[in-house]
Every structure is written in C-alpha cells, then in structure tokens.
Specification:
By secondary structure, this protein is an alpha+beta fold. The chain is built from 5 helices and 3 strands, in the order ααβααββα. Helices cover 57% and strands 13% of the residues. Strands 1-3-2 form a 3-stranded antiparallel beta sheet.
Amino acid sequence: MSIAIDVVGGKWRLHLMWVLGDGPVRFGEIRRLLTGVSEKVLAENLRHLEASGVVHREIYPEVPPRVEYSLTPLGERLNLALRPLEQWGDEHRGEILGRPLTATA
C-alpha cells in the first residue's frame, strides 16, 4: 500500500491519473481541467508520476514543441486499481460531504 500511496499521494496526483485515463493530454488542457492547480505544482506532479513510471511524456518536434502526457502500461494498471476507490467515493459522496471532515476528540 505504501508504494501506491507514494506514487499517487498528494492533492493532485489522483486527479492527474483520472485526467490521463482518457488518453494523451497536453499540459494546457490538463491545467484547464484541474481548476486551481498552479503551473509549477502541475509540472512537479507530472514529473513525479513520470519518474515513478506511470506517466509518459512525449515531445513532438514541432515549432512550438507540442508535449503530450499519457499513462504507461504500468499507469493503466494503477488506474484500474484506483477505479474501485473512485466508485466508493461516488457511492458515498452524500454521506461524506454531509459531515464535517475534521476529527473530534
């Protein structure tokens, strides 16, 4: 579990996996889809996922250069493993969002 959490942990990485699950996406499109993420944070998270081997970065020799991000076969398998978590969230959205998210002692 700790290996998977290291790869997708953090505020934006799970969201990135979800966005990339639909196929190759350019940086600007990812930024538009993930409202609130800064360019710096997005780039850092994409680099982390790339270093982990779950994201592929393709640079096309055009002017200006076009860069697309996509899931690797390893990333596809991780995305499959994350789907039950997404389903659980969808099923329990009302219960979770209807409660305070802070722990009370």
